[in-house]
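From the pipeline queue, job 12 of 40. The input is one protein chain; the requested action is below.

Action: predict structure.
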Amino acid sequence: MRGHRKGGVVAAALLLSACAGSVIPPSAGGPAPGRPAPTPTSPSPAAEVAARPTPATPRPTLSVDAATPPGIDTTTAAGLGVTRGPAIADLLPSGARSRQALVAFRLSCPSLMRRTDQSGLTRGSDWNTACSAASSWPDSSASEFFSRYFEAVQVGDGAAFVTGYYEPEIAGSRSRQPGYAVPIYRRPSDLVDVDLGLFSDSLKGRSIRGKVQGTKFIPYDERSQIVAGSLTGRGLELAWAADPVEFFFLQIQGSGRLLLPDGGVMRIGYDGQNGRDYTGIGKLMKDRGLIQAGSMQDIMGYLRANPEKGAAIMNENKSFVFFRELTGPGPLGAMGVPVTPEATVAADPKYIPMGAPVLLSLDRAEPNGIWIAQDTGGAIKGANRFDSFWGAGARARAIAGGMSARGSALILLPIGSAARLTGR
């Protein structure tokens, strides 16, 4: 995913930092004939009850042999160092999560085998045996698959922090009409990406976005300018939202569903951002004493109850996200495959090979088990930082909105990888 998400909705509660591009489940097509037009809702009381955290005792992290020597580049997993983990057969839970993880891993394999692993932990050919087996392995014995073809390593200290994200559903319309006045913009043609590494070796890996004005390259319009109408009249309106607050949160998630007046569904996904720095309004609001708990519901409640002040606060986040309509199987994650509800996590590719299984053991039971690192996010940085995807609908919104779990993480690598990395 690209964009802010991917800090998850819990981070959205305090930082409002999230990935871009959530999965659209296969049920995203239009409604059956005669079905009334859907309306977006907050989680039902039943969903809220179901989403109450179930405490769990996380598995302790592994002892690290020695501190990283001075001068070692710790910006990748290989530099930070790994510790060989225990045998995983007894650690792998059976059930739906393992089955879903196998399906997600199978989807990732074509990309996984040809990608350059930024973490330095694996080579593309390392995955050939496991991917070949996954192509015909029965989903019903997914845990056995992972225990047969993988071994565990811990990256760094192994201390994991996991948030959650979901796919928003908001009221929207393809055309402007009463009740739908918030423009959802396509990416403007004058928004330019500049690879700074082309100009200086010292800037490799860095880029900026902006626009050309005369002979100068300047920052693109910030949120307040766009909301005030700086893009009006250019034919960039992709659709129209009913609620500016719900649309603000959809921008943070990076993709979502528009529930149309005729009962249909329009899927939209991330298609760029204006290049302005992201500011998490939740932290601003809490620091100013405007909200207490800092939940997503607290933030939305204040913004709705104080529309003028709320609009000004939202404009303090200068970042603005542009969208395109999505068709086909759904939005793609960083690996170029659809991300999977309750099986995909976003991770930092410098510390986790994209496509690798991740075994989480946390102080909250719901996310415990195997996930597949299929995506990335602007707020998901560093070793053992993950953002779990819970899908769409009231249940997903309720779980993701309260997800904040800590514990330990093991990365599952093809058998033989640990010896190469640890020398034993």
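Job complete. The first helix runs from residue 8 to 14.
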